[in-house]
Amino acid sequence: MKIALIRPNMGDYRSTDAMPPLAMGILAARAGDHEVAFYDDKVETIPERLDADLVALSVETFTAHRAYALADRFRRDGHRVVMGGYHPTFRPEEALLHTDALVTGDAEGAWEQLLSDASSGHLQRVYAGDNRAPLSDYRIDRAIFAGKPYAPVELIQYGRGCRFACDFCSIHSFYGPGVRVRSTECLIGELAQLNRKRLLFFVDDNLFSTPVNLDALLTAIRPLGLRWSCQISIDVARDLSLLDRLAEAGCTYVLIGFESLERENLLQMGKRWNGVAGSYARVVRELHQRGIGVYGTFVFGYDHDTPDTLARSVEFALESRLEIANFNPLTPTPGSPLYERLLAEDRLISPQWWLDPAYRYGDPIFVPRRMTPQQLAQGCFEAKQRFYAWSSIARRVLASDTRFSLFGRAMSTVANLISRREVYRKQGRALGT
To answer: Do residues 222 and 192 lie in contact, with contact meaning Cβ atoms separated by under 8 Å?
Structure first.
């Protein structure tokens, strides 16, 4: 059987910051003797005609509109189409209008059963993955990524899930309360096959799943001399010796969700623990002193936000000389408590905003309490413009006193240039075709 794997983009255009989707590599590795072709809508044009018996799409909320359009086209051409990913898991009835079958949750196990049924002509409508199964049989085929113009970053996964259940996030709803990690032996085996000249990025939603897990990882990779980055919760900075160990193990960058400077907002979003390591400025300073760059993310639109909140957040990011930052309007996605709350409060401007033909990237999705929807959307865009102004990049990166290596400074410069370009390319774009 010939299988075409497709990762849709938000719309029919090419991205400049795309990285290889590990989920597609996992599917390819578990496809058995079937012939697999992979097409990434983010970096290449999807062929009008596919030589495939089965078309499989991995769907996120921002790519759902485009994914459904592609699926409808291929079904009209006589292909069987299947879907999986976060969005179909939380909106199966919607996805089933555009697909012959879907996988909810993790694909391992369910994907193999789907392929067996498809081969025998007995495809079921829904296959439920097991999001609690151990990651003892983790496999990935990276050959499908060869030759595609991805960012020069190697991706790897240590664990799945997050120990926190933030109001705006659907990860906890998808994976449940537990966190599963791979064995360090399996991880080291995969690392040996990667290009060590590139920056390594752990895609885990929070690399600090438990002190035991993080300790095992740092102990295993410290002798390898890698340069790597990760997403990590701010409470890792409560223990300065742990920050020392991160740096000694090769950590070059961390992405931290600061989210808000307002304590009331942190309480509302379920992130009261964001203050356990002291002030944000202290955390950034401690990381910088160890040569670790910081990618800080902020969300705006919670009930205690005002236009002044956005201005003060940008000031903090500039004064702290964050290497990278993102200032996003709060985005209620299916599967998150936030979405259900705003829906119940009748504050969503368009409940299925991801399918609304009038929606443009960056548009307001709901009505905030203390500012207008337009103030929220415009304020976030202006925050990005200010942070990624040429003068800001020069001051934060080129003239930074962070103890960066030449490699780290070069990576920061490139990341800022790409981020600046994407801010302007994505703003105002329609989702879908």
So the answer is: no
The CA-based dihedral angle spanning residues 145, 146, 149, 151, taken in that order and rounded to the nearest 10 degrees: 70
* pLDDT, tens digit, 9 for 90 and up, residues 152-193: 899 999 999 999 999 999 998 999 888 999 999 999 999 999
Half-sphere exposure of 431 (CA within 13 A, CB side): 23
Residue 312 DSSP SS3:
helix
CA-based nearest residue to 245, from 208, 278, 282:
208
**DSSP string over 80-141:** EEEEESHHHHH-HHHHTTS-SEEEES--TTHHHHHHHHHHHT---SEEE--TTS-STT----
Half-sphere exposure at residue 238, Cβ-oriented, CA atoms within 13 angstroms: 12
Report angle CA 8, 163, 188 to the nearest 5 degrees: 70
Using CB atoms within 10 Å of the CB of residue 343, give its burial: 0 to 12 exposed, 13 to 18 middle, 19+ buried. Answer: middle
**Could you give the CA distance from residue 271 to residue 257 in angstroms, rounded to a whole number?**
10
Number of other CB atoms surrounding residue 15 within 10 Å: 20
State residue 411's pLDDT score.
Answer: 84
pLDDT digits (tens, 9 = 90+) for 221-251: 999 999 999 999 999 999 999 999 999 999 9
Joined tokens for residue 412: 């920061």
Q: Which residue has the tokens 């599963």?
A: 180
DSSP track, 234-286: GGGGGSHHHHHHHHHTTEEEEEEEEE-S-HHHHHHTT-GGGGTT--HHHHHHH
**Measured distance CA(24)–CA(18) in Å, rounded:** 14
Question: Token pair 């003068």 is at which residue?
Answer: 391
What is the spatial distance between Cα 187 and Cα 196, in angstroms, rounded to a whole number? 14
DSSP state at residue 354: G
pLDDT at 401: 66
Closest CA to 111 of 3, 7, 186: 3
84 forms bridges with which residues in the sheet? Answer: 58, 103
